[in-house]
Amino acid sequence: MINTTNIAPTPVMTPAEVNLDKIIVVGDRVLIKPKSPADRTESGLYLPPGVQDNERIQSGYVLKVGPGIPIPLPTDEDEPWKAPEEKVKYIPLQAKEGDLALFLQKSAYEIIYGGQRYFIVPQHAILLLERDPDLFS
């Protein structure tokens, strides 16, 4: 029998304490925070909760971007005296932090981090990016 009285509970982060600097996005993936869903239609009808979750296409803001698609290193087997290069090179992604992205819900992975809902989306699942050039000026 395990004594659980001395085990400290795991701390739960509040939304204000969420630090995305600790997160490293890997490969050709993008971390997206979904836009707040609309609770009404254009004609004014109220939508029940969960309607937006069943949409095939979702939208959200890009928070972090992975390094890109890795390029295989050329092999120089004919020059054994050369020091091996371990540096990996990447093809950069089109998505940048702050972009509004439309992506396929089916290809996205939903995660909860610090009580906030995020999506990890591969580059190929992003359909459209909207970039505000004044955002980075």
Give a written overview of the molecule.
The protein is mainly β and 137 residues long. The chain has one domain (23-72, 81-136): 10 Kd Chaperonin, Protein Cpn10, Chain O. It has no helices and 8 strands. The chain has strands spanning 29-34, 57-65, 69-71, 89-91, 100-104, 109-113, 116-122, 126-130. The strands form 2 sheets. The chain has a 6-stranded antiparallel beta sheet with strand order 6-7-1-2-5-8, with no helix packed on it. The chain has a two-stranded antiparallel ribbon with strand order 3-4. It is elongated, with a radius of gyration of 21 Å. The protein starts with 28 loop residues before the first strand and ends in a 7-residue tail after the last strand. The mean pLDDT is 79.
